């Protein structure tokens, strides 16, 4: 089995199922676990975003998407050399991985057609379904069922421990401009004991305003910029305007929230701890 992953979540799933040695190529963002970073890079962003602010990234990506061109470039020659049996990608978010004409063109150039698994979850249940789909595609269905069962057991324990008092939360998937929580994240917040009126469960993250946040008077503000780790989230949290009465909690979005992979349960556990600790702090 030879697997190429265009998606960090796909890479994490493959490793979690014990198929790390079968991965032969990755996207530039596939960096977990650390050993994944040694794999050849098959796709890169079409835009140079390094060093740009969030506002500059938002403008560059928005303008590029208006052209109809892809945000990613696939190394077709390398992909051909790697000769994958299975490709893991997505068609949920144009900003996350190759999914359109660039991938179709690259696949057409291959001498044999690999099995392409599209990971497009919008809910926590669909993340589990994706894990099962990957397991089936790479011959590790038993491992996938076992992983999903473990996750579901942990989630059941979290649900049973949800406190009666719900923490007032504002979850920021982007801070300049502001974007609310979308897709599976509002479920994570609810299970962890939070309430975020701006979250769009199962839907795309959309823009909101600081006036919205201030009117809600959150106890906890989660800073989870999509595509960034903890260090960047901490830096962005320091630049936020004052939010009276709120505890600001930067988190590693890549590890726990932005990537729909096996670590989503860790993300719910993290939120539950932050809500529990910081609700007491502002009570």
Describe it for me?
This protein is an alpha/beta fold. 42% of the residues lie in helices and 17% in strands. The mean pLDDT is 89. The longest helix is centred in the middle third of the chain and has 20 residues, at 141-160. The protein has a six-stranded mixed sheet with strand order 4-3-2-1-5-6. The termini are far apart. The protein folds into two domains: 3-149, Nitrogenase molybdenum iron protein domain (Rossmann fold, 3-Layer(aba) Sandwich); 163-282, 3-Layer(aba) Sandwich (Rossmann fold), CATH 3.40.50.
Question: Summarize this, please?
Answer:
The protein is α/β, with parallel strands linked by helices.
What's the rounded overall pLDDT mean?
A: 89
Proportion of beta-strand residues? 15-25%
Low-confidence stretches: none
Q: What does the main sheet amount to?
A: 6 strands, mixed
Estimate the helix proportion, in percent. Answer: 40-55%
Radius of gyration: 19 Å
Number of strands: 14
Shape: globular
Total separate domains? 2
In the sheet with the most strands, the strands line up as: 4-3-2-1-5-6
